[in-house]
Specification:
The protein has 349 residues and is of the alpha+beta class. It contains seven helices and 22 strands. The protein has three domains: 67 residues, Uridine Diphospho-n-acetylenolpyruvylglucosamine Reductase, domain 2; 112 residues, Uridine Diphospho-n-acetylenolpyruvylglucosamine Reductase, domain 3, CATH 3.30.465; 66 residues, UDP-N-acetylenolpyruvoylglucosamine reductase, C-terminal domain (Uridine Diphospho-n-acetylenolpyruvylglucosamine Reductase, domain 1), CATH 3.90.78. The chain binds flavin-adenine dinucleotide.
């Protein structure tokens, strides 16, 4: 394992933001992870775990050892009549794993196809798409505590999963995920109720979709809809969909008749952040080399500024205008690292 000092992170985040890490190490095994940890402690440096950089904003240089998880492997842990439990290494590519799993008949994961990133990062924000969330399939998460080096198995309940959230974004930020154990049903019924998915399948004349149908549909819809980071550097949805009290949603719906709403549990309503941003006039807006994608109001794009600070200025301006117009707070989805003008930025976004 090599430790690279003063390492450029531009190729290691899908927003292509310019930032230098004090040091960078690509770790492929638990042994290498331990070595990198010991090195960082000796140097007095913190550690920032990184996967494929598809959900981070580098606001500036990162004064830490950036540890990219690159471990590989899948292992069958146990099985019963209806499920298999698989341990998958943190550095495996998420979409490659889903593709393999659906091909093997573990069809439940089909809705989560084509989400960028690694298996190890998937529990951090409990990735979700097309009506399915990761937590439905997690049996346990294997972690190493960065302060003590102690290894621990966390049950799914320990992980405190919620909408785009988990304990790893709150109380337990000082761990690195080394593997995820998935409990995969052998005959999961296809989950095809999500509106755009159902419409697509119907248009294809598929009335009783199987896992592979859902997988193909999700790949086709996402491929057509979402801006590709290779041409429009972005981090996917930049804001979470806000969840508000039913009374607040009713009052807003009275004022804005076209406002879409979705039930989000007892007395709670989810409002699409994209709708709020578009109504506030931001769709397609560009300033200082960053902007809001013209086809997708939730996606902020680096149009050449290469600056996390510029991107965060735009994000804050959007948050402010949505707050002023609708009284609704937008929370950022990606996590922010690095220093802007000498001020350290934390991870708790
Ligand atoms: C075009 C596009 C579309 C997207 N669509 C979706 C979507 O539909 N649904 C969705 O939920 N997300 C979506 N995302 C967000 C992103 O794909 C996920 O959050 C993904 O899980 C991030 O994986 P990563 O390996 O790139 O993580 P990174 O961006 O490298 O890291 C993200 C966070 O996790 C931490 N982290 C990474 N690996 C580890 C580890 N092994 N142990 C501990 N902490 C770790 C990092 O420190 C950081 O805080 C999208 C992103 C893009 C660019």
């Amino acid at each position: 394992m090599q430790i690279n000092p003063d390492f450029s992170l531009a190729a290691h985040n899908t927003l292509a933001l310019a930032a230098q890490a004090r040091a960078f190490a690509r770790v492929e095994s638990l042994d290498e992870l331990r070595q990198a940890r010991v090195w960082a402690r000796a140097e007095g440096l913190g550690i920032l775990p990184l996967g494929e950089g598809s959900n981070v904003v580098f606001a500036g240089d990162v004064d830490a050892l950036v540890m990219q998880l690159a471990s590989r492997g899948r292992q069958l842990l146990d099985s019963d009549d209806t499920t298999h439990c698989l341990r998958v290494a943190a550095g495996e590519n998420w979409h490659a794993f889903v593709t393999w799993a659906v091909g093997q008949g573990y069809s439940g994961l089909a809705n989560l196809a084509l989400i960028p990133g690694t298996v190890g990062a998937a529990p951090i924000q409990n990735i979700g798409a097309y009506g399915v969330e990761l937590e439905q399939f997690v049996e346990a998460v294997q972690v190493v505590h960065l302060d003590s080096g102690v290894e621990q198995t966390l049950s799914a309940a320990d992980c405190g999963f919620a909408y785009r959230d988990s304990i790893f974004k709150r109380e337990l930020t000082d761990v690195v995920v080394t593997a995820v154990d998935f409990r995969l049903p052998l005959k999961a019924p296809a989950q095809a109720r999500y509106p755009s998915l159902a419409v697509y399948l119907e248009a294809q004349g598929i009335t009783e979709p199987g896992g592979m149908d859902v997988y193909n549909a999700v790949v086709a819809i996402r491929g057509a809809r979402l801006p590709d980071p290779a041409t429009d550097p972005n981090a996917g949805s930049f804001f979470k969909n806000p969840v508000v009290a039913e009374s607040v949603a009713k009052a807003l719906a009275g004022q804005y008749s076209g406002m879409p709403t979705y039930p989000a549990g007892e007395g709670r309503i989810k409002i699409p952040a994209a709708w709020l941003i578009e109504q506030a006039g931001w769709k397609g807006e560009q300033r200082n080399g960053v902007g809001v994608h013209p086809g997708h109001a939730l996606v902020l794009v680096n149009y050449g500024a290469n600056s996390g600070a510029r991107l965060l200025e735009l994000a804050r301006a959007i948050q402010l205008s949505v707050q002023e117009r609708f009284g609704v707070a937008l929370e950022m989805e990606p996590r922010v690292y690095g220093e802007v003008q000498g001020a350290a930025q934390g991870a708790g976004q």
